[in-house]
Design a protein that fits this description.
heterodimer, A: about 375 residues, alpha+beta, six-stranded mixed sheet, six-stranded antiparallel barrel, 9 helices, globular
Amino acid sequence: MSDEALKRTPLYETHVALGAKMVPFAGYDMPVQYPTGILTEHKWTRESAGLFEVSHMGQCSIVGPDFETAARAMEMIVPADILSLKPGQQRYSQLLNIQGGISDDLMITHSNWSGLEGSLYVVVNASRKGFDFAHIEENLPPGLTFKRYDNLALMALQGPKAEEALAKLNVGVKALAFMNSGRFDLAGITAHVSRSGYTGEDGFEISVDGAEAAKLWNKLLEDPLVKPIGLGARDSLRLEAGLCLYGHDIDRTTSPIEAQLQWSIAKRRRADGGFIGAHRVQRELLGGVSRKRVGIKPEGRAPARDGTEIQDESGRKIGVITSGGFGPSVNGPVAMGYVETAYAAAGTPIQLIVRGQALPASVCNLPFIPNRFKK
Amino acid sequence: MKFSKDHEWVTVAGGVATIGITDHAQGQLGDVVFVDLPKVGRVVKAHESVATVESVKAASDVYVPVSGEVVEVNGDLAGDPSLVNRAPESDGWFMKVKLSNEAELGELMDKAAYDKLVG
């Protein structure tokens, strides 16, 4: 990957013009921060509205003769309930491998897009889209087709004033419920808008033709409520919100149950199985897991980063931090990681080995900042 | 003020070097949220990693450009680490080291040479 030229998103030039610091991320040259810096961008998103470009993520569709056929095909490769999705509704799930480990996490929408009604619109992680697209296509039964949308841009408008800002372009977005989507005209641009995000705040994810992305981006930035936000703040926002980052908090070795994502697996799917990796998921739901993903609050001010060893009070290794850093809204260090199940209860004292020193910490509930999704 | 290629600055008075990170370095790091400083009394060798500066995004080592004994650290950084961003080459200093080998100062750059390095 490092030998290949970095790919550019439709808004690359726009980020550079805004003074963004560009860094390689999942093969793309992406804005990690704008001149105001990560702390300011993070706080702005929690107080007003932050605009993120995430066009590096993978967008695709599964198109079948009807919704039920497409939904049943998708239920073979994810543990979520897809059949019950109403038109426009979306759900979080995971692609599992045969051992029940997580190959990626993704968003699946029952499309209500004119001409694509009944299809599934899917968004996957940038770092995994090569694998995911091949995996999804390989597992489709005959009669279904897979479409990837490499020319679509994706942006997210997140924060308590996101609704106010987007409603100025189309008041209809106010009626969108959390985890629902639809087609909207935004400043003359046709957009797929969903009420969702990765910050713990209310907000929208907006998919548009790459050729029109800059026009919409600039229109949104004309609003003083809206500022551009880079991937640095995206990471600190999602960590405070207790949301998993693929390759860190979840990967091929972790199951959805260990990752505490059982909320995303409906009762019918738990009972019936019938998806790749179901054996482990069902076994762990019944028999429990040996480790769990937990929130971790270090005492003091020193952040504990990804890879930090977690010990019990006697100095025995009981786990590892998978995401850790400074939470600007918490105004202190925050982390997530896996610990042996006996240590997973909130309030359990632990210690973190940072630069050879044992720092006191405790297991805590997630999220660090209460979610403020649209009710 | 002298500069190291690792982006530290040094001023010397009475055989004691005051050390911090350069304005260029703080700009590269971004918002500083924590600084881990050495204990007073520690004997350090030139080019040794003796402190860590944590930004929101990452942890970075700070290398001491001269040898000697740490005689003071900047206690203000514990309560206000953003001093490193606001005043990197004055109030945001990291530590004072009593020099054991003043000849090492000769390896450091002047401002013109450092500015050229960071372009």
